[in-house]
Design goal:
about 30% strand; 3 helices; 9 strands; about 180 residues; alpha+beta; about 20% helix
Length: about 180
């Protein structure tokens, strides 16, 4: 009888032990329920890619964060090829625009950008777009605070949100992007 009780106790102790991530076993503290195992890395899914190569946008507004950088180039294809070769950027299929193909890249952290042709007399350069909650209010506030209007809020094709551009004091162009008006 004593032998049977000792075997039951050993069996209970084994069932209370659990493996930790490094393969060692340990018992949970008395009165603490064992944690459930989290999903394994292989069962977690990476965010799906959109057909244009961009990652889904985060649901939370990241007010003021530069989420898109636009490169204006005299040779967009050469700029794209250089970015691929030197920086390892991956581009989706170019999107048609009134100024020609728009080459977009997206990083896994939800930021990215695009390469387009310059609009003469515009010199080659870059334009950061900051994410904002309300593009019309932000645009109006920027102008009231001394910015010069460049492009009022305008919807992007394909339900890609809204953009607007101002020139901040000192001559620096800054873009705004918002998913909604």
């Amino acid at each position: 009888m004593a032998k049977r009780t000792a075997m039951k106790n050993r069996s209970k102790k084994k069932s209370m032990k659990r493996k930790s991530g490094n393969g060692a076993t340990r018992r949970p503290a008395r009165g603490v329920a064992p944690r459930r195992a989290s999903k394994s890395a292989s069962s977690r899914r990476a965010p799906s890619r959109r057909s244009n190569g961009s990652a889904p946008r985060p649901a939370k507004i990241r007010e003021g964060v530069i989420t898109h950088t636009e490169l204006a180039s005299t040779d967009p294809m050469a700029t794209r090829e250089w970015c691929e070769a030197v920086l390892g950027w991956e581009f989706g299929e170019a999107m048609p625009s009134s100024a020609g193909p728009y080459h977009m890249w997206r990083f896994g952290i939800g930021t990215g950008g695009g390469i387009r042709s310059t609009n003469p007399p515009e010199p080659p350069g870059s334009l950061p777009y900051c994410e904002v909650k309300d593009i019309k209010t932000t645009y109006a506030n920027a102008v009231a605070a001394g910015a010069t209007p460049m492009m009022p809020p305008e919807a992007l094709p394909g339900s890609m949100g809204w953009i607007a551009i101002v020139t901040a004091p000192g001559g620096v162009p800054i873009g705004f992007w918002s998913m909604g008006k």
